[in-house]
Description:
This protein is mainly α. A hairpin with a 3-residue loop joins strand 2 and strand 3. Helix 6 packs antiparallel against helix 12 and helix 9 crosses helix 12. It is globular.
Amino acid sequence: MNISNALSKFFKFEELNTNLKTELVAGLTTFATLAYIMIVIPNILSGIGMPQGAVTSTIIYMAFIGCMLMGFVANRPFAAAPLLAEYVFLAYTVVPMFGEGEWQKAFGAVVIAAVILFVMTICNVRAWLVNCLPACMKFAFTAGLGLYLAFVGLKGAGIINVTDNLTIGNFWDVNTLLAIAGILIIGILMVRGVKVAMLAGLIGVTILSLLLGQSTVPENLISAPASIAPVFLKADVAGVLNIDALPIIFIILVLMFVDTMGTMIGVSAKAGFLDENGNLPNIKKAMLCDSTATVIASSMCAITSGVYVESTTGVQAGGRSGLTAIVTGCLFLTGLFFTPVFAMIPSAACNAVLVIIGILMLANIKMIDFEDMSEGIPAAITIFLMSFSSNIGVAVACGFVLYPILKLIAGKGKELNIPVWILFVASCIFFALYKF
Length: 436
C-alpha cells in the first residue's frame, strides 16, 4: 500500500468525497488566511509586558498541536489555534483587573478555567450544553464578540478616542492613517474575493510604514526559534486561589465555552457537517481536541485553542478531512524562523485586522429573530454589554438571566430546558460574587 492509499484509508477520503491533492491545497489555503495570528497576537500581548518572541513561538506551537489533534483525532478540516478574541479580552480587560503587568495571575485564572473546560468536555457536559443552548444566544455571543473586537481595533488605531467621552480621533495622525489604509486594503481585497486579504493587508501596511519611516527592517530576517522559557509554567495559579478571583475565572470559562462553540458550529455549517437539528455529529471528539490543546496552552501562558472561522476558506477549497488541518499545522511551524519579520509589523496593521474580524463576526446578528422580543431583547442586551462595557462575563451572564425570565413572561416556558436553568442559576451566583 503506497502513502496516498494509506492516507486515503486513514482519513476516509472516499467517504468524505475528497482526495489528496484537494486536501493539500485546502490546508495551504487555510494557513494563508490564518497566518496573521502569528503577527497580531504577539503584538497585542507585548503591550502587557509579555516577551514578544516567546509569545510568537508559543502561538505557533499551539497552532501546530491544535491542528494535529483536530486532524488525527477528530478527522475534521478545522484549524485549531489560540483564539484572537480571547487574547484581546485578556489583555484589555482581565489583566487590568489584577493590576498593570500582572499577566501571570491572569494566566493563572486561565489554567483553572482550562482544566474545568476539559473536565466538562470528558464528562459530556459541554456538548450537552452546546446542543441545548438557545440559537439566539449562540448568535448573540459571536456578534457581541465581533463588536468588541472592532471597538478595540478602532480605539487602538486612534480612529476613535475613549476618555471621558467617546469622540472621533485624529485622522491626520500617521498611525491612524496607516490603520485606515489597512482597513481599506483588506476590505477591497475581500470584496474582490481574495482569500489572503488579511495577510496581504498586514504586508501592505508594513510596506507603507517602512516607506514613512514608522518601521525599520531588522538586521536579520531569519532567526532561530525564540525560547518559550520566559512564559513556560509562569502562570500564577496560587495567586488566584481566592474567592475574589472566582468571577474572573467564571468570565474566562464562559468566554472559552462561547468562543469555541460559535466558531465550531459556524465552520461546520459552512462545510455541511451539521445534522437536521443544527448539531455537529461526534462533536465531543472535536471538543476533546480543543480542550486538550487548551490545557497544554495554559501551561505556556497561552489561552483557548479553538476552531478559527478562517477554516471555512479551506473548506471552500474542498477540504473535508483532518489532513487539511494537519497540513495547516505543519505550515505554521515555518513561522518559527521569522520572528524578526513579525516584530516589525506595526500595531496599526494589527488594529486594522481586528476591525475586519469584528465585521465578519457581526454577520451572525442577522440570524437572531428580533420579531420575537423574548429572544431579541436578551440577545441585544448581551451584544450591547459586550461591546460597550468591554465586560464579556457580565454581558453573557445578563443574557443567561434575561432569556428564561422573558420566555416565562411571554408564556413560552415550554421552550426552556434544564441547561438554560442551570446557566440561569450559575449567572445569578456570578452576580452575587462579582465586585462591581
